[in-house]
What does this fold into?
Amino acid sequence: MSASAVSHDIRSIAALFDMRGDFVQASVFGSGHINDTYCAWFDQAGQRLRYVVQRINHNVFKQPVQLMENVRRVTQHALAALQAQGNPEAYRRTLTCIPAHDGKPYAIDAGGNVWRVYPFIERARGYDELETNEQAYQAARAFGAFQKLAATLGGQRLHETIPDFHNTPKRLEALEAAIAANTNGRAAELADEVAFARARAADCSRVFGLIAAGIIPERVTHNDTKLNNVLLDDVTAEGVCVIDLDTTMPGSALYDFGDMVRTAAPTTREDDPDPANIGIRLDRFEALVAGYLSTATFLNEAERANLAFSGKLLTLECGIRFLTDYLDGDVYFKINRPAHNLDRCRNQFAFVKAIEDNMKAMEEIVSRYQ
Ligand code: ADP
Ligand code: GN1
Ligand code: MG
It folds into this structure.
């Protein structure tokens, strides 16, 4: 999504926060599927600075205040760690919350919407499609470092901002429920996609079963490690800042690695409708493995053994979610065209197939980094 007309009154929203400057202008920003994100410029004593102003999607996140408690804890922990290391740009290396006038990390507008403000991370950007293997390496390295840091977060278990977010067997059940309800009359045209998902029920349960058996540990994970959720330095490509912390909560390291594979290893973007374009780049996959394992040094044997599989799992799960949303009438993910969710589902399932065809080679790559 490029900059376009502002549909919320961002000047009034920003006035709820402790901004040290004069509002200049705001525009819609980014290509996330969930929140409403704006870039807002302020004039601070003659210097133009920008901020990210976001409305939390409370259709998706039912407990936005709890969510912001998580975000505040995680970002304060990251900032303290960076400062303790003497990092000279700690405020560029982690999101930090600009407080509202009452000191809370969020503000609620007259319509009941929950808003937050972050400093805009400058000289870096997120990529919907990567350009180089170096970018894949750096992105995966940054997400691994994020997990490592999250492991030292003390205190209570984080809130589950979306219960069962990566409970893949439940995602399959939700698909079955959507087929049965058929609220939009779309089920009849989807026999191939439904059969594809059903044939992989055992895959859906594999990691879930290993977690239930205590073989794969619960960790604090990001859970939405899509490649545009890490900002890479414009000059060095280094992973500067992990963003979109809404789903940072108890999870599995495999959910994070799997989603990196889903978004960084395909030959085309997530919603390319032409299956002929969809394949896997093993060189990109290798860069992800190398980058991730350079920082995620804490994985156990079962986690390592499932790294390649996690790419298949997260892609399958995401395809199931897009299909379910298409059946439900596009109520969850933002869409830009009527069959957008169906295109996304077909794309994801084609990528699952590409992974299946290359699983041996992927396992072999992982084994070289053990
Ligand atoms: P969503 O949950 O909708 O994906 P994100 O938090 O990922 O929302 O934000 C959407 C986009 O806005 C990101 O992909 C990124 O391009 C941009 N963005 C978000 N936060 C920042 C930030 N602090 N600095 C710079 N860009 C940001
Ligand atoms: C959403 O928020 P965003 O655009 O980074 C979704 C992810 C999906 C992704 C698919 C909270 O991510 O789980 O994998 O779309 N986030 C949420 O592109 O549902
Ligand atoms: Mg995002």
